[in-house]
Amino acid sequence: MTSDSGPPGPGSAPSAVPPAKEPGPTAGDVSGSNPRAGEHGEGHRTHRPWSARRLPAALVASVVLVAAGAALIDVIAVRAGRPAAAWRRHLADELASRPVDDVWMLTGAAVAAALGIWLLVLALTPGLRHSLPLRSPAPWLRASLDRDGAADLLRDAAMRVPGVSKARVRVRRHRVTARADVRFRDLDQVKDDLTAGLEHERDRLALARPPRIAVRVRRRTH
User: Fold this and answer.
1) For residues 42 and 137, is the Cβ–Cβ distance under 8 A?
2) How far from the centroid of its chain's Cα atoms is residue 190's Cα?
């Protein structure tokens, strides 16, 4: 039998009673309390990956290396007391004797300008036009989808629409063109269902810049 505890005496220490904890958010409610918790990195702009341009770089480097090597070898030979190479003497004579409006001079200038423009275009454009960039959660994470793969997925989605017997899908950067042959059902209904199915499949691809959907249907009875 225990006796009730009385009021604390002057020499006794009061017992510490921990305060009741208020209910707080659980681990599963953390994301719900912050609506933008899972949107970190979604505000950045996803760009198309840049091509390495290995073949043009190798060609330009090879041409420059051969031309510079040949000229350097000939200059060293001349400095050593030997006569200049025949090709260099012939090139110097042609450049000194031909006028500026000569057809060969104009042709060479046009070819050099075309090559320079081509190299500038390669340097300023990303290339890889056959790849479609995907949305990524972080700026340092890059992913892309091949156009043929995207066309196959969209064509499979088109073939699942009732009434479609054959579908052809072409994917470009800003537009998806789908042509379908319809065996049965109303053409307008099939077109609406096909457009909705392709838009749903396009959204599932998580493309950074979703292309527009253009659908054309025609009746096939044989």
Assistant:
1) yes
2) 32
